[in-house]
Amino acid sequence: MIPTNIKLTDDLVLDPSFALFLEPLALANPNWEFTPQTANYNDTRTTAHVQRDEDNQYLSAPAGTKFLNNVKVKQDGQRLGFLKMDSKHTAEGHVPNYIIKSWRIHKSRGTYDETETTKLKIALRNAKKFLKPRTLVELFTKKSNELQSGFVNATASLVQAFRYIGQDFSGDVQLYAYCILTNRDVPQKTKANVEKVMTASTYERQIGDYQLALNMKELESAGRLMSIVKTRDDKYMYASKNADPIVVEYEELPVPWQEKLAVLQLLQNDELAGDIGYRHTSHTFMIVT
């Protein structure tokens, strides 16, 4: 009987060698949840990677099932990493090769976030070492980086959209402006081209978006945007410059922050609101302070 925190569908069973890796971890960490990953062709197999039957053939999975060799590991909804298994040819023949994938692993060679070994004891030790929940600081840093990246992309998108709409008649605009500033008559064709585009409702909207993006970037440069992360238990994290994050209830936030968060909750993801802030997702925001 496999541990209950290893969640298998009816058509999957653990590769026997993989079970030797997973089951001790599942028993030692009952708050971990192991779920199948089957996106790649080698994540499931009809035969075991290394174990053989009495006829010296690779062991076949029971009828109607496949052997599973890849699982995602989570704790309290937070992904810790992945555990996988394939095989490796050694002087002893083909042996199980245990792989741990985690954001905590940083390598300069090979797959940068994976470590592997054919030694089961070392694999178990590595899994315990690398599969750990993020600390409060690590979690806030991750979400803040994602939030910052989203903000950069959102403002850049509005700027580029405005520049794109005017690139086909930029020469006409320059000639139009030059004539106005030097008290010359604007050529009729130039005047018609420029005024047709600039009086359209779409242009008015995009120039508003362009100004919004520039204003928000100025607020960011002035240090007036505060990153706020909503936690899984509906609390809110934020951090002053060079300080550890603080976790508070919504009612403990300053009232102006509460009001701005209430507005941002009504927006779409990756939407900006002048003098209010930016919504990246339903759990990550920047507010103007």
Please describe what this structure looks like.
The structure is a single chain. By secondary structure, the protein is an alpha+beta fold. It has two domains: 12-130, no CATH class; 136-288, no CATH class. Helix content is 38%, strand content 27%. It contains seven helices and 16 strands. It has helices at residues 16-28, 120-130, 136-166, 170-181, 188-198, 201-221, 255-264, and strands at 12-14, 32-36, 44-45, 47-52, 58-60, 66-68, 70-75, 78-90, 93-101, 114-117, 225-230, 236-238, 246-248, 271-273, 277-281, 284-288. The strands form four sheets. Strands 13-12-11-16-15-14 form a six-stranded antiparallel sheet, sandwiched between helices. A five-stranded antiparallel sheet has the order 2-7-8-9-10, with helices on one face. The longest helix has 31 residues, at 136-166. The radius of gyration is 28 Å and the shape is elongated. The two termini are 56 Å apart.
